[in-house]
Design brief:
Number of domains: 1
Number of helices: 10
Shape: elongated
Structural class: mainly alpha
Oligomer: single chain
Radius of gyration: 19 Å
Order of helices and strands: HHHHHHHHHH
Strand content: under 5%
């Protein structure tokens, strides 16, 4: 590969890591809004808490999501620098718009949509791996519903279990338990969302012949993506924290624990 080609490759990897940083910045609010809104942790401490668990998530997860994004959304044969550039640009612009507006949208959805759109624009609908897309769309549709049902069931079950306890005792218990639920949610977020960027970078490397004949995610890609996700989390998305923490609904520590646990189970299952 000539110098110009290497420059393009490095530039696209940098753009992918920028997206990963913005993902942490944008979606970190999902990890910490609940524990901040219930006043279990102040914002600064919550950000460091979430960043730590976002970074170590790769120790607990396989790379199945990265494999799907890298080979199961669009045909690897049509992956070119132009396609990756278009997908990343669309996702980054959308992330910046929704971050500025304080809208809690999904960075993953933006990236998958950008990848599909870039693939269709480059090589037509035949470039799409429809089996992989259908599974991804099903997960996108079902995840909010699953989180809702799980959190609702947890709230009802916990309320029935602790019906004879005083509100102070319940709050005191679930303030401690929220450390566990927030940690699990951050692990799920880091293990799921960072892999989207890993898949994009690995797909680019594979298409350019840097991975040989077999698709895999190099360790340096894994560590870089987890680090950028954690770094983005450290900067936080306070506009979205405010929306998630107080403008959608107000939560008690018990409700916050149930919301985080339901979300964490959904992320781990994905």
């Amino acid at each position: 590969m000539d110098a110009a080609g290497l420059g393009v490759l490095f530039g696209l990897i940098a753009a992918a890591l920028l997206f990963d940083f913005l993902n942490g910045l944008h979606d970190a609010a999902n990890s910490i809004a609940t524990i901040v809104s219930t006043r279990v942790l102040p914002p600064r401490a919550a950000v460091f808490w979430a960043a730590f668990f976002n970074f170590i998530a790769f120790l607990f997860f396989g790379l199945h999501v990265a494999q799907t994004v890298g080979t199961g959304i669009i045909d690897p044969a049509v992956v070119t620098p132009r396609v990756i550039f278009a997908a990343l640009t669309a996702a980054i612009v959308w992330n910046l718009i929704t971050w500025w507006a304080g809208i809690p949208s999904s960075s993953s959805h933006a990236l998958i949509g950008g990848l599909i759109g870039a693939g269709v624009a480059s090589a037509g609908p035949s470039s799409i791996v429809w089996t992989g897309v259908s599974k991804t769309v099903a997960a996108i549709v079902l995840s909010p519903a699953a989180g809702f049902v799980l959190a609702l069931a947890l709230v009802l079950g916990v309320s029935w279990t602790f019906v004879r306890n005083t509100p102070y005792a319940v709050d005191s218990l679930f303030r401690r338990l929220q450390f566990v639920s927030a940690s699990l949610y951050s692990l799920g977020h880091g293990g799921n969302d960072a892999q989207k960027t890993m898949g994009i970078i690995a797909a680019l490397l594979f298409a350019q012949g840097h991975l040989g004949n077999e698709f895999y995610v190099p360790l340096w890609v894994v560590l870089s993506c987890q680090a950028m996700m954690a770094l983005g989390t450290l900067f936080g998305g306070w506009r979205i924290v405010k929306t998630m923490g107080s403008k959608i609904t107000r939560l008690t520590p018990m409700q916050g624990f149930c919301a985080e646990t339901g979300g964490a189970i959904t992320l781990f299952a994905a």
